[in-house]
Write a structure and sequence with these properties.
Strand order of the largest sheet: 1-3-2
Largest sheet: 3 strands, antiparallel
Number of helices: 6
CATH architecture of one domain: Orthogonal Bundle
Strand content: 5-15%
Distance between the termini: 72 Å
Radius of gyration: 22 Å
């Protein structure tokens, strides 16, 4: 028996949705990073530059929401891009909002990296049928939304029952006006 992974693994083999999604994300990241090798960008930085290039100035909060990234992960990637001179701070709606914009050097770096990114994108797309490719996008969007909504619900519930706070009282089943 070899240690080769099984390509036809069933959900029971990887019962945890999170572990399975992380496994897929890790494999994708390795593939895209291998294509981007030599561009001085990894896929998270490429994605940030690409989005900023398409949208123009964007707040750190908006970037975090769009990419579903933790604040520290986003800050670390933006700091890398800023240190390289590929993004720079931009004025926000008010002094508290931290925005970023792609610099001319960042745009040049992005243009130089796009062929390598396209190679990875085409390699992945070539391994799927059109129906699988389209289904992948639908599932990824649904998965992200479900996880984001589930996390928000968990945080709200935790805040309602945090130490020092009383748990919410159960609602009465009695209708208003009924005796």
């Amino acid at each position: 028996m070899t240690g080769a992974p099984h390509s036809n693994a069933s959900p029971e083999d990887y019962a945890c949705a999170c572990a399975t999604a992380r496994r897929a994300a890790h494999a994708l990241t390795r593939m895209y990073d291998a294509s981007l090798r030599g561009t001085d960008l990894e896929v998270p930085q490429f994605a940030l530059l690409n989005m900023l290039d398409k949208t123009g100035p964007c707040s750190q909060v908006t970037l975090g929401r769009k990419f579903a990234l933790e604040k520290t992960t986003l800050s670390r990637n933006l700091k890398f891009l800023e240190t390289k001179g590929w993004v720079e701070p931009a004025p926000g709606r008010d002094a508290r909002e931290r925005c970023f914009v792609v610099t001319p050097a960042g745009r040049a770096r992005l243009q130089a990296a796009r062929p390598a990114w396209r190679t990875a994108q085409q390699r992945l797309r070539g391994a799927m049928t059109t129906a699988q490719w389209n289904a992948m996008w639908e599932v990824l969007h649904t998965l992200t939304d479900a996880a984001r909504d589930g996390h928000a619900e968990f945080v709200q519930q935790r805040e309602r029952t945090a130490p020092g706070k009383r748990a919410p009282r159960p609602r009465s089943r009695r209708r208003i006006g009924a005796r």
